[in-house]
Amino acid sequence: MLRPLVALAGLMGAAGVALAAASAHGGDASRLASASAMLLFHATAILAAVALIERGLLHGGIGLAAGFGFAIAAALFAGDLTLRQYAGHALFPYAAPTGGTLMILSWLAVTAAAVWPKS
After folding, report:
1. Domain range holding 37?
2. Choosing a second label site near 17 at 20 to 30 A (CA), which of 41, 45, 65, 119?
């Protein structure tokens, strides 16, 4: 289950760079800069979580949930902002705040994975 997370992190990183370029070369594209930042930060967080799980420093199950939470959360947040930029409407009501809340919960899961005893 760790390899799919690494692959997702790679896709998120690529999308984050693409959105950063679009933001830099577009008109009023501040939403894209925020979407880019969330993708890039959380792609790195996924890679770190995978490495920490592999080293035995995070509880595997909780760390895995945190990693997938980062991927889903960043997709919701960045997807909503990108769709608003290009299509003029939201992904669904409260998609970005839902993604942001899931990001916070995923970071708390990393905390729990660090202190939870391994089974």
Report:
1. 2-115
2. 65
The per-residue pLDDT string of the chain (119 residues; one tens digit each, 9 = 90 and over) reads 899 999 999 999 999 999 999 999 987 888 999 999 999 999 999 999 999 999 999 999 999 999 999 999 999 999 999 999 999 999 999 999 999 999 999 999 999 999 998 76
| Residue in 112, 100, 96 with CA at minimum distance from that of residue 70 | 100
Global pTM? 0.94
Q: How far apart are CA 116 and CA 75, in angstroms?
A: 27
Of 15, 8, 110, the closest CA to residue 59 belongs to 110
Domain count of the fold of the chain? 1
Instruction: Residue 119: count other Cβ atoms within 10 Å of its Cβ.
Output: 6
Angle at 118 between CA 53 and CA 40, to 5 degrees: 25
With b meaning 16 or more CB within 10 Å and e meaning fewer, what string describes 83-102? bbbeeeeebeeebbebbbeb
